[in-house]
Amino acid sequence: MKNKLSINVLFAVLSVGVMTFGGVTVETSMNITFPTLMSEFNVGLGTVQWITTLYLLVLSTIIPLSRFLKNKFKTYNLFLFSNVIFVIGLILNAFSPNFFILLLGRFVQGIGTGIALPLMFNIILDNVPKSKLGFMMGVGSLITASASAIGPAFGGLVVNSLGWRYIFILLIPVLLISLLLGSFSIPKTFQNELHDVKFDYGSFVLIILMFAGLIIGISNVSENSLLSYQVLIPIIIGVLALIIFTKMQNKSKNPILKVDILKNVSYAKYTVAFFINQLIILGLAFIVPNYIQIINKSSSSLAGLILLPGAIMGAIMSPISGSLLDRMGAKKPILTGIAMVILSLLVLFTLSSNISDTIFLVAYIIVMIGIGMSYGNLMTQGLSYLSSELTSDGNAILTTVQQFAGAIGTAIISTIITSINSSYSGGNATVGFKFALLFLLILGFIQFLAIISTKINKK
């Protein structure tokens, strides 16, 4: 592989990245619309949450298929299909006459983003020279991270000024720009070798059962007791499907996903660390605005604005930290980033009974700089422990883990806060937040230990 980064590769990454940007932006901006949608379509909170839950469920079931799709279809055909179907989903949502059509549009968008997200990183892994790999993986992380940062502010602004339907309408030209960029760059760059592989329908059904069971079960914890049938039955179904799926993949000559790569201890540790990173991001994104509004009695607009500088700084740090990995290796930027996160969480935990808006602003900026230092580099370094023919499987697992964390992260943190507050007789609403911050802090230490105990791969 040449040491120079091709302009066509760069445009190809940007074209798929723009599509991914649109998917993540819609995902994070839709939470702002829940009260409006509940009123317009006359549905409850439990129903309207399916706007996000269904989308994340579809993402989680499509992403594990990325290895099969890569072997079965040309890169450009995958790009074209995912782009067109995403636009169809946007149109369905923009003009949906009822809640069912709105859900259908989100389902269709989930398919498009589920193909695009691993496709972007596969393009980087297969076509970027090793000397630029950290930087470009950082760029890929920047695209998704910046969308997460912009989403809530974008959603709030559009809903208040134009109406919720314009969240989808305004993204249609963005997807058309993506289509234009990809149409001239991808065919010139990628002629991937295709294989005559058969689709394993049984394994796909197990993937659906696995993620549906786990996501629905864990999401139900916030409104039901841990031992209720609404929680236990879906989780049991999900766990059983996971066990059967793993055994089937290990025995199959041509598995949908080579899950046995998790026997590689170093890769497995980085996968756990990557999962924790995502949980911390989502956990704080829930804790900070809710504490600011519920405890500090500040406005929702201020709560959103306090998150924005940190999210932007974290996004900017992603390619910078990737360049640091290219120059000095992975361990220093990753551990530095995790240490920044731990120290900030420790400060917030210590002050949890009285955290001012200013302290939240500063602490969240430091946390997100730390996340930016570690996020993309965890993915890059984790994949370096795998052989080149296994990187697409490794990428699929990491991207699936990321979306699974996204699907359950908010539910876990909200459950901790509400459960502790309801059982605490002192009437102090900050206690639940204190335990939620402690949970994230413990996760941070686990992440640090996972990385420091792993030898850095020199290949």
UniProtKB/TrEMBL annotation:
It comes from the Bacteria. One of its GO terms (cellular component) is plasma membrane. It is found in: Cell membrane. Residues 1-455 form the Major facilitator superfamily (MFS) profile domain. Coiled coil: none annotated. Keywords: Membrane, Transmembrane, Transmembrane helix, Transport. This is Major facilitator superfamily permease. Pfam families: MFS_1 (PF07690). One of its GO terms (molecular function) is transmembrane transporter activity. It is a multi-pass membrane protein. The chain crosses the membrane at residues 7-26, 46-66, 78-95, 101-121, 133-154, 166-187, 199-221, 227-246, 267-288, 300-322, 334-352, 358-376, 397-420, 432-452. InterPro entries: MFS (IPR011701), MFS_dom (IPR020846), MFS_trans_sf (IPR036259).
